[in-house]
Amino acid sequence: MTLQARIQVQRGTLAVSAAFDVGGGEVLALLGPNGAGKSTLVRVLAGLLRPDEGRVAVDGAVWDAPGWHVPAHERSLGMVFQDALLFPHLSIADNVSFGLRTRGVGRQARHATAAEWLARVGLEGLGHARPAELSGGQAQRAALARALAVEPAVLLLDEPLSALDARTRLTVRAELRRHLGDFPGSTVLVTHDPVDAMALADRVVVVEDGRIVQAGTPDEVNRRPRTDYVARLVGLSLLAGTGEGRAVRLDGGGVVAVAEETSGPVFAAVRPESVALYLARPEGSPRNVWPARLTGATPHGATVRCELAGEVPLVADVTATAFAELGLVPGAEVWATVKAAEVAVYAR
Amino acid sequence: MTAPPPDSRRARAGGRRRTGAGVPAPLLVPAVLGVAFLVLPLLGLLVRTPWSSVGEQLAAPGVGQALRLSLLCATLATLLSLFLGVPLAWVLARSSVRWRGVLRALVTVPLVLPPVVGGVALFLVLGRKGLIGSWLDEAFGITIPFTTTAVVIAETFVAMPFLVISVEGALRAADTRFEDVAATLGAGRWTTFRRVTLPLVAPGVGAGAVLCWARALGEFGATITFAGNYPGTTQTMPLAVYLALQNEPEAAIVLSLVLLAVSLATLLLLRDRWLGRSGTTL
Amino acid sequence: MRLRTLPLALVLLVTAACGGEADAPGAPAGAAEAATDPSGGAGLTGTLTVFAAASLTDVFEDLGERLEGENPGLAVQFNFAGSSALATQITQGAPADVFASANQSQMTVVTDAGLESADPEVFTENVLEIAVPPDNPGEVTGLADFAREELALAVCAPAVPCGAAAEDVFGIAGVTPLPDTLEEDVRAALTKVELGEVDAALVYASDVASAGDAVEGIGFPEAEEAVNEYPVCVLTEAPNPEAAEAFVELVLSDEGQQALEDAGFRAPSA
Fold this sequence. Notes:
The structure holds three protein chains of three kinds.
Chain A: E1 3-11, E2 14-22, E3 27-31, H1 38-46, E4 53-58, E5 61-65, E6 68-69, E7 77-80, H2 92-96, H3 98-102, H4 107-120, H5 136-148, E8 154-158, H6 166-182, E9 186-191, H7 194-200, E10 203-208, E11 211-216, H8 218-223, H9 228-233, E12 237-250, E13 255-270, E14 276-278, E15 288-300, E16 303-310, E17 314-319, H10 320-326, E18 333-338, E19 343-347
Parallel strand pairs in A: 3-9, 3-10, 7-8, 8-9
Antiparallel strand pairs in A: 1-2, 1-4, 4-5, 5-6, 10-11, 12-13, 13-19, 14-18, 15-16, 15-18, 16-17
Chain B: H1 8-20, H2 25-48, H3 54-59, H4 61-94, H5 100-107, H6 109-112, H7 115-126, H8 133-140, H9 148-173, H10 177-184, H11 189-200, H12 202-218, H13 221-226, H14 237-247, H15 249-275
Helix pairs in contact in B: 4-9, 4-12, 9-12, 10-11, 12-15, 14-15
Chain C: H1 7-17, H2 31-35, E1 46-53, H3 57-70, E2 74-81, H4 83-91, E3 98-100, H5 104-112, E4 121-126, E5 128-132, E6 153-156, H6 161-173, E7 181-183, H7 186-194, E8 200-204, H8 205-210, E9 216-218, E10 228-234, H9 241-252, H10 254-262
Parallel strand pairs in C: 1-2, 1-3, 6-7, 6-8
Antiparallel strand pairs in C: 3-10, 4-10, 5-8, 5-9
Helix pairs in contact in C: 1-4, 3-9, 4-5
C-alpha cells in the first residue's frame, strides 16, 4: 500500500505545495511550526479540502486529480484529531463502531469489533461510558480505536498528542508507537513536536511556510537540520557558511574550525552541551573562541540553557552549579568555546 | 467544545458551586424586577379568578373543544415547523447559498409582521382567490380558509421563525469538526446530519420546538384572520378567550388560566423528560 | 401608567360596576339644544377628547377637523375603539369629554356609573346589510342565502354587537345560518369580503359604505328589526365641557347628520 501525494492548495495568503509518498506500514511525520500548512495537507489527504492542483492516490486508486475528487466519506481512511472529538451523544463503543456502521457492518459484527479494539487500546469495560466520563488520554485512545476499527488504507494523525498533559503524552505516545507498528497501511502524522516525529515516524518531512524544507529519516533530520527551525527543535545551533579546508567561513561573519576537510556551502551544527563558557578569555589554544553576550537563560532540569548573541550566535547548556559560580546574568559578557571535533559539518 | 478536561465531572461540579456563590447586585436587581414583571400579571389573573365558578366555566361545552383544538393545532404546527424549519436552519447555518443574508431576513419577517397582516398575506397566497389557493380550488376543489388546516398553517407561519432561529443558533455554535470526523468515518452528508449534527444540536432543536409550540398555542391574529373562528373547527383557546372577553370577562380569565396551566404543565413535563439532561436550554 | 388602569383590572371593575340601576335610554330630542348651536366659533380653546366607536372614525375625524377650523385655539383628539373598551376606560377615569357609543348597552355602562352630564342622545342609526364581493359570485340576494352550505359565509360572533344583531335578524327571518366563521368584529368580517374569501358577510351599512367599490351592499327587510342606535353624551368629568357641548351639537346639526348619512349611517327614526 502506497500513498502518493502531490498537492498544491492556497489557504488565505499561504501557498501550500508539497509532494511525498508513504509506503505500506510506513509512518511519515509532517513536522513544522503552527501555520506552516501541515494540517492543510492532511485535510487534503482526508478529502475534507479539495486541492487546487495535484494528485492524491492510494495503490492506484486516485482520490484527487484535476477534475476528480473522491469525497472524504468515500476514502478508505481513519483520522485522529488533536482533540479526540468523540461524538458526545454516543457511548464509547458506538463511537468506535461508528465507521463500521456507516459502512453497513451488521450490529453483531460491529459490537465484536468495537469490543476488540477497546481491548487493544486498553479501554476494556468502558464501552458503555460516555465520552465526557473519559480522561484525555482515554479519549484519545478511543479516538485511535475509532479510526483504526475500519481498517483503513491510510491513517491520518493530526497533532494526536498535543492536547495531552506531559505524563499522559508519554504513555499514549508509547502505545501509539505499538499500534502504528501493527498497522499495515500508510500513516501520516502531523506534529510540531520533534519528539513525536522522532519517536513515531520512519521518515520526517519538515514543512515551513507551505513548503517542504527538509526530508529524511528522523536521525538525519536530528543530526543534520537544514533550517534554523529544525535546528532549534532538535536543540542545535545551526550555522550556515562556506567550507574552506578545515574551517567554515560563516555567512553571518566569523570562522568556525572543524575537524574534517570541507568545501562549498555547508552547515555547521553545534550541540549546546559542547559549548563551554568562561568569564575571561580561556588560556591554552582552543581553536574556536568567540566573545558573546548572554541574552537569555532558561533552566532545563540540572542545566541552564543560555542563549548567546555575538559574531557567532550559539546556544550553550551549562550546569546549574556552573551557571551560579560564574554569576551569570542576562547581558553578561562571556567567552564561548567549542572543540573543532564537536562541530558537525554537512553540505547545504 | 474542545476535548473534555481530565475530569469533567469535577470541573462541572466546580462550575455549579461558583455560580451559586452570589449574583452581583447590578444583575440581581434587574433580574428580580424582570421576574416580577413577568409573574405579577399572572398573579393578577390568579387573584381575580372567580374560583367559585371555575368548575362551571370549565364545564361549559366549548371549553374542552377549544382546548383540544389548540393543543392539536399547536402540536401539528410544531411538527410541520420541525419538518420544514430544521432543514431551513441548516441551509442558513451551513450552506454557502448566495443571498443567505436576504434569506435569513425573510425568515424573520413573520416575527415583525403583525399577525393579522400575516393572516391577510396567507389569504393572498392560499385563499380562494390566492395565488396557489385559486389553483387548488379549481384543480382539486380544495379550499383552505376556515378549516383546521388553515389554523395549523397560520400557526406555523407565525411560530416557525422561532424554531428556525433557535436551531440556526445551535448549528452555528456546534463544532463542525465533529462533522469532519464523521466524514472521515465514511458518513455522507445526510448520514452525518442524521447521526451527528442533529444529535449535537438536539437541545437547540428542543428549545426551538418548545418556543414554537408555545407561540403557536397562543397564536391569535393570523389564525382568526386566515382560519376564522368557528367552534370545533377553527376556534382555538386564544380566540375563545378573546370572544369571552367581549361580554364574559370572568370566563375569559378562567379560559386563560386553563391555557396557561396546560402549557406550563406540558413545558415542565418536556423539560424533565428530554431537555432535562442538557439542562441549560430551558 | 397607574397600576389600577391595567387592562385586566379594568375589565374586572367594569363587571363589578354592572350592578343595579335600570336602563336610561337616551331618547329626547336634540333639536332644542341644537338650535342654540352656532356659538360664534373662535371661542373654544384647549383640547377636546372624544371617545368614539371605531365605526365612526372617518365621519368624526372629518367633523373634528371642521370644529378645529372654526376654533383655531382648539385641538380635537380622538380615541377610536370598540364601544365596550371605551366604556371600560371611561369608568376607570380616563379623561374624556365626549362618549359616542355604537350601542345602548355600552352607554348604559357609563350612565350606570353616573358619568353622563346630560341624558345621552341617539344621534344616528346603523342597520345590518349583506356585504358581497363586487361581482356577487355567490349570487346572494337575501338572508336566506346564509343557509346555503356551499357558500363561504362570515357572521359576527354572538359575543360582539354585530353578532348579537345578526342572531336577532336570523331569528326573525326564520333562517338557520351556516357560517364558516364567527368573526371577532365587523371589520374582520368585511375584510374577508374585500379579499373575496367569503361570498357574503353580515355587516353594517356604514361598513359597506366605508369599503367603497370593494364590496356591494344588499339590504333586507329584517334589518329594520335590529336597528343599532348610536347614543352620544358629554361626560361629567369632562375637562373641556364647552368644547364637548359644541362637538355634540355639531354631530346633531344638519351638517353632522349629512356627514353621517354620506358614511352609510341614517338619521335616527324616533
